Amino acid sequence: MLDASADTPAATPVRAPRERTPPLVPEVEDIQRGYDQLVCEERGIRGTQVRLFTFPHGSTDVSRTVVCLPGLGASGRSFAPMEPLADAYRLLLWTPPLKTPATHTPLQWNLSVLDHPESRLPERFALLGSSYGSLLSIAYALEHPARVKALVLVSPVASVRRVRRLALTLSTLVRAPRPLAYVFAPTVARVLGGPSLPPEGRAEIVREARRLSSLELLRRLRDILAADFLHRLGELRVPTLIIEGGRDLLVPPAAARDVAAHVPGAELEFLPTASHLPYMSHPEAFNARVSDFLARHPD
């Protein structure tokens, strides 16, 4: 009897398609995997465009709104790893205008845009700010205390005396023009995110920063270098959570302790192996702490 299998060619194993390695310096429109599921809405506020990102199947409960303000050159997309919280909270991932008028500092302009009726934000909401976004969050909570029902400050910037000026200034190299971008940008992104930040996160930091002009980035940097809200933190009367990475090279842990010591009743959480962007590098631990805090302070 003939062995039929002898004339049957062996089946070629099917290889799973390789996942594309994120580029070191992606094109501006090359949104990275894991950050591409968000819905983007553009709102015209005071004549400038604000990009507002939301999760497609997230909560629409206005009473559970959390406005998230990103860092120096980032956008609301950087908060994509917070998706597990979207079932319970209406997360509005805010992106400041790419250009602010010369008549205002970026901080002043963003404060006015956030509070403008065209922003269509609810009367009261929780506010989460990272780095430059934390500076904006502190300023907003001081100026409009009745509107903020809970405050989460990530890698908090309250006074330039408490941040590493050189490291902060060097962080603007994430926006370096080509071909310098290939030298500086990926390294800066790694420093910002730390060794635990996945390649997609590093590429996303570089990609989004490239949307911003060098002038606007430097103007925001001047806001930070001129900031000194430390003496006013005692005026805050809102439940406050401070989250700090133990390996943050821009905002040292001592700075976060200082902010916590000045805010009445503030809670301080350290993520020992995280760097400047813990919501991107350590999303599970970060989301757990934020979820617990917001659940204890619903009003």
Give your account of this protein's structure.
Mean pLDDT is 85; it is low at 1-9 and 179-184. An eight-stranded mixed β-sheet has the order 1-2-4-3-5-6-7-8, with helices on both faces. It is α/β, with parallel strands linked by helices and 299 residues long. The N and C termini lie far apart (81 Å). It has nine helices and eight strands. α7 (253-262) links the parallel β7 and β8 (267-271). The protein has helices spanning 106-115, 132-143, 165-170, 180-193, 199-209, 214-225, 253-262, 278-281, 283-296; strands at 39-45, 48-54, 65-69, 90-95, 125-130, 148-154, 240-245, 267-271. α1 (106-115) packs across α2 (132-143) and α4 (180-193) crosses α5. Helix content is 31%, strand content 16%.
Short description:
This protein has 9 helices and 8 strands. The longest helix is centred in the middle third of the chain and has 14 residues, at 180-193.
List the helices and strands and how they pair.
Layout: E1 39-45, E2 48-54, E3 65-69, E4 90-95, H1 106-115, E5 125-130, H2 132-143, E6 148-154, H3 165-170, H4 180-193, H5 199-209, H6 214-225, E7 240-245, H7 253-262, E8 267-271, H8 278-281, H9 283-296
Parallel strand pairs: 3-4, 3-5, 5-6, 6-7, 7-8
Antiparallel strand pairs: 1-2, 2-4
Helix pairs in contact: 1-2, 4-5
